[in-house]
Model the fold of this input.
Amino acid sequence: MPRIQDLKNHPAHLAIAAVLLLSACAPTAHTDAVSGGGSDTMLRIGDAARDAGDIGAAIPIYRRAHALAPLEPEPLLRLAGTLHSVGAYREAGNAWERILRLNPDDFEARVGYGETLAGLGQPVLALEQFQLAAEIGSSVKMFNGIGVANDMLGNPEMAQTAYRDGLAMNRTVKLLNNLGLSLALSGESEDAIAALEEAGSLADADARHRANLALAYTVAGNTARAAEILSRDMDDVSMMRAIAFYETVTALPDHAGKVAAIGAYSSTRSNGGISAQNARAAR
Done:
């Protein structure tokens, strides 16, 4: 675990966040039953809406569940996690803070708050939360978050150690993708390709992970293979632009700047940069 005071000497770079819009109105199917029932009932309805992809309905239902049981952590945990999953990081951060005021030793909230702070472009504060979480327990999400924050701060070796610690627990697409992208951006293209090829072989890999594999091949100087991979998801013009962008990014002088550039680019496209998002996200 890196020392926090040492990390505070590094400037934080551009926040890496892709904010999705919430639905303006919630479908009737998930809101008709919200007027009555207790907090547990609200949680079940909210979960049904969330699992159906109806986040615009789930969030106000979780707020109602919290209002009915303000001292119970579960409604706030659901609310904070759901807000984070759609990039509503400031609101998510407020919810995580309320949970931690109720119980400073809530491991899930510590990790979630750290992820949200990383999403807000505050990696030093995120690492403080992960360090506190590590005093309570450990998880794949925690190691992923430590890796993301260190990548944002320009500490690729620390980041890659954290991703590997997480992979020792579970070889997920997210961790393999993050490790591979971190390795690619630090110039270790052979190891990056191996990690990203493994990520791409898993069932939940998608175009975002293939784009990162193409980046690794670009770093290795194999633009023909990069173009072949990108052609699965892009037209010829988009493919050429993506490769040109990858070449520009890899020429940047510092790791944190590369991470920030990939994150900013990814926030407007379907391919994914370094992210502390949930398992459905690219990272």
User: Anything to note?
Assistant: DSSP finds 16 helices and no strands in the chain. The CA atoms of residues 208 and 272 lie 5 Å apart. Residues 1-35, 275-282 have pLDDT under 50 and may be disordered. The longest helix spans residues 236-250.
